[in-house]
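Q: what does this look like with S-adenosylmethionine bound?
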Amino acid sequence: MDISDATQKHYNAAGVHPTTDPDDPRSQFAVDRYEDHLPKLIRPGMRALDLGCNAGRFTFAMEDMGAIATGIDFAEIPLLYAKKVAHRRKSRCQFNIGDMAALPYKENSFDLALLPQNNVYLSYQTLENLSVQLKQILSDNGIFVVIMYDELVKRAGEEALPERYDVQTGLIAGSRAIPEKGVYASPSYFWTVAFAKHIIGQHLPLGQVEEIEENRFMLVFGNKKR
Ligand SMILES: C[S@@+](CC[C@H](N)C(=O)[O-])C[C@H]1O[C@@H](n2cnc3c(N)ncnc32)[C@H](O)[C@@H]1O
């Protein structure tokens, strides 16, 4: 199973719905979770990148916090919607189509990169590769903010896990029924906090880790070029 292909198809089929539409108040719960954390990391004028932005709720939220924000995603349907919202709002947010495995940005393009719970779509190799890319793309002292669950905590006691879990790759098979569209493969990777710290920390030193709520962690990695 190619996770990129499956994830792209799944999110294009899912499209935009009230709980992800940045123009619908019902989508804001996801951003509000970090109201005590994200604004503290954003300085006015900071160039912020939202990795796996979908319809852009975190991109717009970072703009509202004072950043010059860009979102990137490889699912064109939600991304197109984000562009329409930006146009309607007269927002300065930019939305780019692209894969986190090969970001289309040059050196020193951003001061902050946010990965809000999208690590599960990245293989161990891809998240490491993303960290290597960010070392170049982030400015000196730029930060990489990863928000994630620990899958071991989340899935403890899940009886069906061994049948879905591929020991060799860490991939967990899954599917999601999308109304009127059908059932889509929705695989994800088994990430633990300790493992993410280790993989990313080899390239971008870990600054802080905080458990924002039960089993929801914010990891902040720094970039030091010299
Ligand atoms: C759970 S959604 C989260 C969207 C957004 N952060 C939000 O809260 O609305 C995950 C998004 O990540 C995108 N994604 C997953 N893997 C990606 C990759 N390798 N490159 C670019 N986008 C990716 C998917 O297309 C999807 O839109």
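The two ends are 40 Å apart (CA to CA). The chain has a mean pLDDT of 96.
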